[in-house]
Design goal:
disordered N terminus, 5-stranded parallel beta sheet, 463 residues, Rossmann fold, 11 strands, 11% strand, flat
Length: 463
Amino acid sequence: MSASHSAPLNLLQNSTSLASFFKAFWDPAVAVFAVLVMASLFGELIDGPEILLAVVMFSMLYPGNIPLHRSWLGTLRDIVLHWSLALVVLFLLAFGTHNLDTFPPDLLLAWALTVPALWLVSHLLLPRLAPGLFAMEGIRSAVIIGANDIGRRLAGQFATHKHLAVDFVGFFDDRGRERLGDLAHGRMLGRLDQLADYIRQAHIDAIFIALPMASQPRILKLLDDLKDSTLSVYFVPDIFVSDLIQARVDEIGDMPVVAVRDTPFKGLNGVVKRLSDLFIASLILILISPVMLACAIAVLRSSPGPILFKQRRYGLDGKEIIVYKFRSMTVCEDGPVVVQATRNDQRITPVGAFLRRTSLDELPQFINVLQGRMSVVGPRPHAVTHNEIYRKVVKGYMVRHKVKPGITGLAQVNGCRGETDTVDKMRKRIEYDLEYLRKWSLYLDLEIILRTAGVTFTDKNAY
């Protein structure tokens, strides 16, 4: 399912507060419980170190999630990746604070194996043992207003996800059957002016309004007709299925506003993102300093010119920044016309070819991260001249500049590297960038960093 089609499902999954609360706390609670149990089994006193580990793990793993529609293999893969990332962060934290020997190795090994096993068993069994826990609270039967694309996808979610325990009765729509054809699959119940009477007679619990935003007068009249009923009303506006970063409801004073296009790094998220960038970039620069020195010497001896190539790029909010790279060409183009590197490009030096293929030419950008111009993970910055071309032909192109550009990103670990010689290639890259902004989490950043290490030497698109 594409990102633009996932909003109705997300609304349903997040609509039950009990299930959201339970899913958010289950995984971190299991990890903490396992810490305390293992400490007792291995004869360790539950005191400062154990309590600190429990607090750190809960903070790292919250909020958790119990996937309801994954195969056991997909669930296992997600758990292994999620837990591996947590252990890597924990190891780096212990290493940096000189606390690697605080716990017995046998205890840590048993705990590291027990937690994912408990997660796997609980994730597979809980939805089957307690399906009511994940049902939409107080809703047994529902109708959808609008037999359009949004409404039909919503009906499909009800049919597919049985745990919601919602009996979808049918559609109401003012369009005639000849216009709808078989779009509503024979589930038409009537016109909008017939809805109020039907609700009273059929004792429907909820309606889902899937009409477009342009239908505001009809929506207001519909709500007015239903003001003397006790049914629940949900609005699934069409703005939630457009290409957005995050669609959320905020308040300005006592007025609700919908954030249609905004950065995900507001408030605490922004602090977490910046601190993680500083920590990761500093650690990597310390580790790769010998490699950077070797690269600098190789570039200096390969051909006349500077060691670093400085290029203007668009940064946060579309403002120009200077990005560093090891020079890989015999030229340093940064004017109104920049020719993208192509396969067997004669401008690329032999040393530069190796640096580009292995992404070693990007290493100086960790300095840009410390400067605050870039992030370790985010949409890759393009040359200013390329931005001016693609912003006019690729929908949502400039939305990627609501966050700092990254050294690596979701597009790059999914094969979108190298020359973008067609609009379709650039469009695919932008789809991944926008998906990253919608789904951002610290764990997603760590996953992308680990995947980047895996594809660096195998990606044939880098040249």
